[in-house]
Structures are given as C-alpha cells and as structure tokens.
C-alpha cells in the first residue's frame, strides 16, 4: 500500500478523504487531510532503527508536548501512522530564526520543552546521547559500504575529542532536531513539531543545534546561553556548548550519510551531506581554536 493510500485508509476518518502531499519531510511521508470540516497532518512512517527512531516514543513525546502547550494535539495514532491537528501558520526558515524578535519567541518554547514535557510524559522514554548515535552511525555507514567510509576514522576521532570536551551534563527532555522547519509561527505563538528524535539529553544539544542549523551569530549565541541559563556565560559553559554544537553538526552530517544508503524518500541526501559536512568542518576549526 502506498503512503497516500495508507493515509486515506486510517480508521479515524468519517468518510472518504483525499490526502494532499505535504512537502518537507525527510524522515516521514506527510499529508494534509480534510475531514468533517477540520484539517489534519498525517505522518506515515514505520520505526527506523538505523536512525533510532521508534514510533512509540514519537507518539508519547507528541502527546506530552501538546499537554505542555507547545505542539498540536494528537488526533489519532495507529501502527505506522500519526494524525495531528493542522496548525495554520508560517513554517520558519533559517533567516526567520536568525531574526532577533523571532529568536526571542523561540527560546521560551525550548525551555518549556525541556522543563515541562517530563511532567506529562507517560510510559517508557528514550535517551538521546549524540555520541552514542555517532558511533552507531559509523558502524552503519561502514556496513553499508558508503562512499564516505574513508572519512570515518577521522570523524570518530573528532567525535571522541568532542565528547571529552562536553564533560558532565544536566539532563532535560530534548527535542533534538531543531531544524527551522520544525517551528511554525501562527502569528500569536510558535509551535514546535516533529518529535521523532525526542529524548532525555543535555540542553546544550538543542541550543547548539538551534545555533548550527540556523546560522546564529556569535553574539546571538552568547545571548542564547545567557537567556536560557539566566546567568552570565562562563568560559567552561561556552567550551562545553561549542563542543556540543559541533557534535550536533556531525550528527546531522552522518544522519545524511546513513540516509544516502538506506532512505527511500525522494530527497537529495548527497547534497545535504555535502552542505552539513562543510558546516561541521567550519565548526570543528572554530572549536579547535578555543
């Protein structure tokens, strides 16, 4: 059954529906469906063990994020499918996130994610430790005879160095995938969506990912840390943050390397790998000069 047919056949619909493809998904196949005068987003996707994506975890995180007031409600869920209320608004771009007034609205949403979701989370919960993910990705890339295999010794040596520099961490509940397209601005509030990679993690991973995925300036990064932690930025915090930010870029790069050899979604993963590898190299150079 095709993803579209799967979306149309879900048990929650009141009658025949006509799913419309929703662009932008690089882990799931997404559709908009109108039913009984309401619109919904349908996410079609099975577990993806090579990316450590487990749909029970996405569902639990989505429900808790809605209860915490930062994500749309879950309308229906069944194996391989998640139906959410449609949010009418603007999907943010990197340029949007870099605008200071928008960034000032985003940071409280991240803090709310970290601090409020655990109060509503039910059932088993995953952790997301980027350095475990990187080691697992390296094995998958080598086993898949990726064209990037020759880079692995260098990349994993750098990952080991970054893990040392991050040091001890405090756990929060992270989104762990703060790409600009995962923020929607409805004019009154900013919503955070797509909880595929949610799990307990250091807050520095989300903060570093927000900065690296959206090209924040060094001045904005200092503002981000001071605002989130409500304190002046120490050299130790800045060093740990810089290492985690660099690791977040390496994870995005290796995620794409794995997707090049395993994903069936129509997306230019090779170009995405190239783009993120360049970002990682720039971040690594900055990290090593600190």
The separation of the N and C termini measures 53 Å
CATH superfamily of the largest domain: Aminoglycoside phosphotransferase (APH), C-terminal lobe
Would you state the CATH class of the largest domain? Alpha Beta
Using the alpha-carbon principal axes, give the shape.
globular
- Helix count equals 10
Classify the secondary structure makeup into a structural class: alpha+beta
Largest sheet features: 5 strands, antiparallel
Under CATH, the topology of the largest domain can be stated as Aminoglycoside 3'-phosphotransferase, Chain: A, domain 2
Q: What is the ordering of alpha helices and beta strands?
A: HEEEHEEEHHHHEEEEHHHH
Q: Rg from C-alpha positions?
A: 19 Å
What amount of the residues lies in strands? 5-15%
How many distinct folded domains? Answer: 2
List the uncertain runs.
none
Plain-language structure description:
By secondary structure, this protein is of the alpha+beta class. It has two domains: 3-85, Phosphorylase Kinase, domain 1 (2-Layer Sandwich); 90-288, Aminoglycoside 3'-phosphotransferase, Chain: A, domain 2 (Alpha-Beta Complex), CATH 3.90.1200. Helix content is 49%, strand content 14%. The chain is built from ten helices and ten strands. The chain has helices spanning 3-8, 55-67, 94-98, 100-116, 130-143, 152-166, 203-214, 218-229, 235-262, 269-288; strands spanning 20-22, 29-35, 38-44, 74-78, 81-85, 90-91, 172-174, 183-185, 190-192, 199-201. A five-stranded antiparallel β-sheet has the order 1-2-3-5-4. Strands 6-8-9 form a three-stranded antiparallel β-sheet, covered by helices on one side. Strands 7-10 form a two-stranded antiparallel ribbon. It starts with a helix and ends with a helix. This is Phosphotransferase family protein. Residues 20-220 form the Aminoglycoside phosphotransferase domain. GO terms for molecular function: ethanolamine kinase activity.
């Amino acid at each position: 059954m095709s993803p579209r047919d799967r979306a149309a056949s879900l048990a929650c619909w009141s009658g025949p529906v006509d799913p419309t493809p929703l662009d932008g998904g690089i882990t799931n196949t997404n559709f908009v469906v109108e039913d009984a005068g309401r619109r919904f987003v349908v996410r079609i996707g099975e577990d993806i063990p090579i990316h450590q994506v487990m749909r029970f975890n996405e569902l639990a995180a989505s429900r808790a994020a809605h209860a915490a007031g930062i994500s749309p409600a879950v309308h229906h869920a069944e194996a391989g499918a998640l139906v959410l209320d449609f949010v009418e608004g603007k999907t943010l771009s990197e340029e949007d996130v870099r605008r200071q007034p928008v960034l000032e609205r985003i940071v409280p949403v991240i803090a709310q994610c970290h601090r409020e979701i655990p109060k509503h989370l039910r059932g088993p919960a995953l952790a997301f430790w980027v350095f475990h993910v990187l080691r697992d990705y390296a094995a998958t890339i080598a086993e898949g005879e990726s064209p990037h295999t020759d880079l692995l010794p260098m990349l994993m040596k750098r990952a080991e160095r970054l893990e040392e520099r991050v040091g001890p961490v405090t756990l929060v509940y992270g989104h762990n995938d703060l790409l600009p397209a995962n923020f929607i601005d409805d004019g009154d509030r900013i919503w955070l969506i797509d909880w595929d990679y949610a799990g307990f993690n250091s807050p520095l991973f989300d903060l570093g990912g927000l900065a690296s995925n959206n090209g924040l300036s060094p001045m904005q990064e200092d503002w981000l840390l001071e605002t989130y932690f409500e304190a002046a930025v120490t050299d130790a915090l800045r060093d740990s943050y810089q290492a985690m930010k660099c690791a977040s870029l390496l994870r995005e790069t290796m995620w794409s390397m794995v997707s090049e050899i395993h994903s069936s979604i129509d997306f230019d993963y090779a170009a995405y790998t190239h783009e993120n590898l360049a970002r990682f190299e720039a971040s690594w150079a900055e990290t090593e000069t600190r």
